[in-house]
Automatic annotation (TrEMBL):
Keyword Oxidoreductase applies: yes
Coiled coil: none
Keywords: Oxidoreductase
Protein name, as recorded: SDR family oxidoreductase
One Pfam family hit: adh_short_C2
PANTHER family in UniProt: OXIDOREDUCTASE, SHORT-CHAIN DEHYDROGENASE/REDUCTASE FAMILY (AFU_ORTHOLOGUE AFUA_5G02870), SHORT-CHAIN DEHYDROGENASE_REDUCTASE FAMILY PROTEIN
Superkingdom in the source lineage: Bacteria
Record-stated family: Belongs to the short-chain dehydrogenases/reductases (SDR) family.
Taxonomic classification: Bacteria, Bacillati, Bacillota, Bacilli, Bacillales
Length: 254
């Protein structure tokens, strides 16, 4: 029987208090990882997650910072190292939220925010955390991308531009650090059911699911399961991958 065992590993999840991030955090902790719970403003949720993990017998800490600023990420690195150690697993989940509209109406600063949170966040995380992974000869960089990067639908331009830029960074980074047994992969969720959706009468919107081969929306746990798998030794020979977790709604071509 295969088992995802992250005992002895240290993981950082950025945007850990978000709808998907909180489930990734819980899942990595259940797999045995010590977890650094990053937040930017939702301290109450970060403390709730910390209490939940520690009461279950796990080890965790909370860390605040703006992931678009290199100085904040370097400060986060020092705080995590002092309390838990150098992370073996970095999950880049945080992204700046904004109001979507057409290319002609989208504010230029929205493109900047997406570049900073999708591209520069990952550059800064790599610079901060990959050197220690290199010394150990083991590491995992896991980025949360999106099916939107393949769909290119109206009103998605800033988000799509940021995530496609992120994709380029990850593919290049995978080739640069692979010799050190560091894998670099992306999970691309579709329109996912999360805690804020549960309790609604109709979770499987007909106009969306009719396009999905599995005829349903995925859940936050589906995304977290993919992250946990990529973080484990079961995925030790997978790198440079963009993996949709969306029931087949988008399918990368060969």
């Amino acid at each position: 029987m295969l088992n995802i065992d992250l005992t002895g590993k240290i993981a950082l999840v950025t945007g850990a208090t978000g709808q998907l991030g909180r489930v990734m955090t819980r899942t990595l902790a259940r797999c045995g990882a010590q977890v650094a719970i990053h937040y930017v403003s939702n301290e109450s949720k970060a403390r709730e997650l910390l209490q939940e993990i520690t009461e279950a017998g796990g080890r965790a800490m909370i860390v605040q910072g703006d992931i678009t600023k290199e100085a904040d990420i370097r400060s986060m690195k020092e705080r995590i190292k002092a309390e838990l150690g150098d992370p073996d697993i970095v999950v880049a989940n945080a992204v700046v939220q904004y109001e979507w509209t057409s290319v002609l109406e989208q504010a230029p600063e929205d493109y900047v925010s997406q570049f900073e949170s999708c591209v520069l966040q990952n550059v800064f995380l790599a610079k901060a955390f990959i050197p220690a992974m290199t010394e150990r000869g083991w590491g995992r960089m896991i980025g949360i991308n999106t099916e939107c990067a393949m769909q290119n639908f109206p009103h998605q331009s800033a988000y799509t531009a940021g995530k496609r830029g992120m994709d380029g960074v990850y593919r290049v980074l995978a080739k640069e650090v692979g010799a050190h047994q560091i894998t670099v992969n992306q999970v691309a969720p579709g329109w996912t059911i999360s805690e804020k959706d549960r309790g609604m009468e109709d979770l499987n919107d007909a106009s969306y699911v009719e396009q999905v081969p599995l005829k349903r929306r995925g859940t936050d746990q589906d995304i977290a399961n993919a992250v946990a798998f990529l973080a484990s030794d079961l995925a030790s020979f997978i790198t440079g991958a963009y993996i949709p977790v969306n029931g087949g709604n988008v399918m990368p071509a060969i």
